[in-house]
Amino acid sequence: MKKSSILIIVLFLIIYILPLGVRPIVIPDESRYAEIPREMIDSGDWIVPRLNGLRYFEKPVLGYWINAASMILFGENAFALRLPSAIEAGISALMLFFLLRRFVGRDSTGVFAASIFLTFFEVFGVGTYNVLDSLLSMFITATMVLYFFAQMEIRPGKKNRLLALSGISCGLAFLTKGFIAFAIPLVVIVPFMIWERRWKELFRVCWIPLITAVLVSLPWAVMIHIREPDFWHFFFWNEHIKRFMADSAQHKRSIWYFFLLLPGAALPWSFLLPAAGSGLKQDGFESPIIRFAICWFLFPFLFFSVSNGKLLTYILPCFPPLAILAAIGLHNYFERGKTKAFTIGSLLLAGVIAILAFALIVVQIAGFQGFKPYALYWKGALATAGLLSWTLFAIFSIKTSKHRKKIVLYAAAPALLMFVAPFIMPDQTIRVKSPGGFFLRHANKIGPDTVLVSDENTLRAACWFYKRRDVYLLGPAGELTYGLHFEDSKHRQLDPEQFKEYILKSRGTHPVILIATAWNYKNWKQDLPQPLFEDSSGEGGFVFAQF
Question: What domain count does the chain have?
Answer without folding.
Answer: 3
